[in-house]
Amino acid sequence: MTTGNAQQKFLEVYARWEQSGMTRAAFCKQEDLKYHWFMTHQKRMRSEIGASGFEQVSPPSVFDKTTTRIEFHYPDGRYFVFESGTPLALIKEIAG
Asked: 90: Cβ–Cβ under 8 A, 6 or more apart, which residues?
């Protein structure tokens, strides 16, 4: 597969992920994709367009009772999963 073909394949996968509304990890599992592959290509794509890969997020002060967990993903593929009820101060300290 040439570099152009690999890039085109990733762009198609990325578009499906954006439309899915799923987390990257859940999407990769559903599509039988390697999470590391997805994150590597996403990082490469972002560097080509000049995006930093980071967004400022402000967690709500209270999560509703339907929230079962919170996932925090780093651009390099590392991530944390926090169960509902985890104090926000702890999440900020660990993921900050």
From this structure: 82
